[in-house]
Structures are given as structure tokens and as C-alpha cells.
Design goal:
Elements lengths: L1 H6 L3 E6 L6 H12 L2 E4 H14 L7 H7 L5 E4 L6 E4 L2 E2 L7 H11 L2 H16 L4 E6 L2 H5 L5 E6 L2 H11 L5 H17 L12 E4 L5 H18 L1
Parallel strand pairs: 1-6, 1-7, 2-6, 7-8
Antiparallel strand pairs: 3-4, 4-5
Helix pairs in contact: 2-10, 3-5, 3-6, 8-9
Length: 230
């Protein structure tokens, strides 16, 4: 299998969609199975948000966020079996998942200077992935990598997404989680710069009634078909 992964054509896969659709689990599994690198772009936005909070930047002040956007050094590890994220040399994989960061990441991510900075970083990482890469996020197929070889947009009902996310959060209230997801959707879809949107040439996969294994199998098949046609 490793030999096949080395000889297969490099492929750039963009996987977009809102929270709770299975993007991260699917993307990591597909990348690992096919010998590709993996990039969680959401972690990068969480990382810069964590830096803003830690350095007491007013996240309600877009001008203050813009002025600080170039300061933190963000390094993403792209091993799908062990993805890492560091800010100024500090491992922030845990801290970026706190509720405080979650509640503020949309505001920070909406600032154009932040998106420009992170987009440039994402493009650089994708360009340097020799065997190809799976990049997951919200604007990958539309803005970050519009020329990606394969674009996939994952969807699911709000109820299914809330159930999955509350399970990840170990028993969080499903209704509250659903409302938080819908609020995040509205913020991400409504921002002026690089909103959450399905690319015109993306393949939409509704994961509502699918198991994670089925979603992974579906995406692997799509990537293999793209490789075969290359």
C-alpha cells in the first residue's frame, strides 16, 4: 500500500463544510489511508484566536486584530496520524479547543487581514506537500485552493451535527449545541471575506444518514477516481 501511495499522482483535495459534518475525522482518515498530508485550517484560525486572547487583544475591535495579525508564528504539522499546531513554539492543540476560543474564533476569522495571513500560510503548506494533501475548512475550494484537484462539500442536518458535536463534548446539551452551531453557520456564511460556501464544482456529500466509515469510503473512492483520471 505504501508503494502505491508513493507512485500515485499527487492530488490536492479540498474538503469544506460547517461544523459537525465530520470534516476532521473524514479528512484525517482519508489522508492516512491514501498516503497524503493533512491540514486542519480551522485549527490555524483557532490558533491565531488563542494568541489574540492570550495577548489581551480586544477581539471585538477589528482594527486591533488586524494590527496584530502578522505577529504570531503559526506552524502546522501535516501528519494525519499526529497533526500538530504550535504558536510561537508552544503546543496549543489543547488550548485552542476551549470554549473561550470557540466563542471568539468567528469574530477573529472575519477580519480580512487575518484571512489573508492564514490563507497565504495554507497555500504554502499545500504547495509543499509532495505526495498531495487533504485540506479541510470552510473556504478551501472557493478561496484558498480554487484549483484543487477535487473539491468536496460535506453537509448534515443541524440535528445530526448537534448530536455529534455534543457527543464530542462529552454530554453537552444537544439543543444548546445546535443553537451554537447555527449561530456559527450564520457568522461564517455571512462574513464579507471568504464566507463559508460550496464551490460550484464541489461534490456535495450529505453525511446525515451515513456512518463515519461510509463517509470515509465515499471520499476515498472520489479521490481514487480523480487519481485514476489524472
Amino acid at each position: 500500500m505504501e508503494s502505491a501511495a508513493r507512485t500515485a499522482p499527487a492530488v490536492i483535495v479540498a474538503i469544506d463544510g460547517p461544523s459537525g459534518t465530520g470534516k476532521s475525522s473524514t479528512s484525517k482518515a482519508v489522508a492516512a489511508q491514501l498516503g497524503l498530508s493533512y491540514l486542519d485550517t480551522g485549527a490555524q484560525y483557532r490558533a491565531i484566536t488563542w494568541w489574540m486572547v492570550t495577548n489581551e487583544i480586544d477581539v471585538d475591535d477589528p482594527a486591533a486584530i488586524a494590527a496584530a495579525a502578522s505577529k504570531p508564528e503559526i506552524v502546522s504539522g501535516t501528519d494525519p496520524l499526529n497533526p500538530t499546531i504550535h504558536v510561537d513554539g508552544t503546543d496549543v492543540a489543547g488550548p485552542i479547543r476551549t470554549q473561550e476560543v470557540t466563542s471568539k474564533v468567528s469574530a477573529v476569522s472575519a477580519v480580512p487581514e487575518v484571512r489573508t495571513r492564514i490563507t497565504e500560510l495554507q497555500r504554502s503548506i499545500a504547495a509543499s506537500a509532495e505526495q498531495g494533501i487533504v485540506v479541510e475548512g470552510r473556504d478551501i475550494g472557493t478561496t484558498v485552493l480554487p484549483d484543487a484537484d477535487l473539491k468536496i462539500f460535506l453537509t448534515a442536518s443541524p440535528e445530526a451535527r448537534a448530536a455529534r458535536r455534543s457527543g464530542e463534548l462529552k454530554g453537552a446539551d444537544v439543543n444548546a449545541t445546535r443553537e451554537a452551531l447555527l449561530k456559527r453557520d450564520a457568522a461564517d456564511s455571512g462574513r464579507k471575506t471568504s464566507p463559508l460556501a460550496k464551490a460550484d464544482d464541489a461534490v456535495e456529500v450529505d453525511t446525515t444518514e451515513l456512518t463515519l466509515a461510509q463517509v470515509i469510503e465515499c471520499v476515498v473512492t472520489l479521490v481514487e477516481e480523480k487519481r485514476a483520471a489524472a
